[in-house]
Each structure stands twice: as structure tokens, then as C-alpha cells.
């Protein structure tokens, strides 16, 4: 038997202030968007801001539902809106911020598995990487140069 080793490398910024200015501004848009989260069930609010190559910034927040699976994460809200409104624009950078309503956390909040799969689809479609920055309410910001780092061994159309 052989084994297959999968490695990912992410960059760590000590705080939001250490981000390049353009990314800092994008993260600030995600923080603003997070205020529009509708999360009465999980009490966990997430905001996302997506920079497109046409210079538009699309924001999203998580929207929950009494029928739990009908809710949608912040990232997919933003990504699907962007793809719907600007189908030929490339997605360049996604900033994500999340945390509980009940406590202040400094744990960086990465996109969930379903959001990774959704983002992967557009990264494949546009054939260029989407940089992803994510953080908690305070503290470190993690950066992945591409969605691929976050979803190794992904399922995509090449398998169909
Ligand atoms: N959530 C997001 O919006 N993005 C993620 O990537 C992780 C989870 C939302 C979904 C749900 O409304 C709440 O956070 C708790 O899971």
C-alpha cells in the first residue's frame, strides 16, 4: 500500500491591521455585512465581502430559517449573488468574518464545506484562483491563496 500526503499552506496575519490596505477595506465591508446576518437560531453571525475584477464588491451575510436547512451561509449568499449579477466577472478576493453573538472569539472562521464546494466551482469556471481571508471578531487573519488549499481532493466536473 502506498500513501498520499496532502498539504496546504496558509498565510497568517497577526491582526486585521497587518493586511494590505485593499484587503483591510474588503474585510471592513465583511464586518459591515455581518451586521445584517439573520441568525436567531445559531446566534452565530457571519459576513462576507467578495471583490470582483470589475471592481464591484458583493457582500453577504448568513440568513437562517425556522426550517434550518433552508438557511444559507454568508459566503454562498455573496458568491451566488455575484455570479447571478456579473456572470462574466472573475472573483478575486473573498473576506470572511464570523463569530457568536454570545461571546467575542478570536478564532478565524473558515468557510464551511458546502461553501468551499460552491467557491471551488467558480474558481474552476474562471480558471484563476480566489484568495480567501478569514477571521474571528478579533485576532489573526488567515489567508489561503486559492480555494484549492481549503478543499484538497475536491470533487469537480472532471469526475463527471
Ligand atoms: N455559517 C456561515 O455563514 N458561513 C460558514 O462558512 C460557516 C457557517 C453560518 C451558517 C449558520 O447560519 C451559522 O453560521 C452557524 O452555522
Automatic annotation (TrEMBL):
Q: InterPro entries given for it?
A: APOBEC/CMP_deaminase_Zn-bd, CMP_dCMP_dom, Cyt/Deoxycyt_deaminase, Cyt_deam_tetra, Cytidine_deaminase-like
Top EC class, one word? hydrolase
What keywords would UniProt list here?
Answer: Hydrolase, Metal-binding, Zinc
Q: Which cofactor does it need?
A: Zn(2+)
Substrates-to-products reaction catalysed: cytidine + H2O + H(+) = uridine + NH4(+); 2'-deoxycytidine + H2O + H(+) = 2'-deoxyuridine + NH4(+)
Q: Which Pfam families match?
A: dCMP_cyt_deam_1
Q: Where is the CMP/dCMP-type deaminase domain?
A: 21-158
Domain of life the protein comes from = Bacteria
A Gene Ontology molecular function term for this protein is: cytidine deaminase activity
Q: What is its EC number?
A: 3.5.4.5
Show the SUPFAM superfamilies listed in the entry.
Answer: Cytidine deaminase-like
Stated family: Belongs to the cytidine and deoxycytidylate deaminase family.
Q: What is the role of this chain?
A: This enzyme scavenges exogenous and endogenous cytidine and 2'-deoxycytidine for UMP synthesis.
Identify the PANTHER family for this entry. CYTIDINE DEAMINASE
Listed NCBIfam families: cyt_deam_tetra, PRK05578.1
Q: What is this protein called?
A: Cytidine deaminase
User: Whose protein is this, by species?
Assistant: Mariniflexile ostreae
Classification from the root reads: Bacteria, Pseudomonadati, Bacteroidota, Flavobacteriia, Flavobacteriales
Amino acid at each position: 500500500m502506498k500513501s498520499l500526503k496532502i498539504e496546504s499552506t496558509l498565510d497568517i496575519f497577526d491582526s486585521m491591521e497587518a493586511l494590505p490596505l485593499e484587503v483591510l477595506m474588503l474585510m471592513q465591508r465583511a464586518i459591515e455585512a455581518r451586521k445584517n446576518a439573520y441568525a436567531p437560531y445559531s446566534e452565530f453571525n457571519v459576513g462576507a465581502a467578495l471583490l470582483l475584477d470589475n471592481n464591484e464588491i458583493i457582500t453577504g451575510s448568513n440568513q437562517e430559517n425556522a426550517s434550518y436547512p433552508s438557511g444559507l451561509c454568508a459566503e454562498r449568499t455573496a458568491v451566488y449573488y455575484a455570479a447571478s449579477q456579473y456572470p462574466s466577472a472573475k472573483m478575486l478576493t473573498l473576506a470572511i468574518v464570523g463569530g457568536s453573538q454570545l461571546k467575542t472569539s478570536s478564532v478565524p472562521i473558515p468557510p464551511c464545506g458546502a461553501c468551499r464546494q460552491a467557491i471551488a466551482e467558480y474558481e474552476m469556471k474562471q480558471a484563476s484562483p480566489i484568495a480567501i481571508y478569514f477571521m474571528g471578531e478579533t485576532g489573526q487573519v488567515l489567508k489561503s491563496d486559492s480555494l484549492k488549499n481549503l478543499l484538497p481532493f475536491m470533487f469537480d466536473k472532471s469526475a463527471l
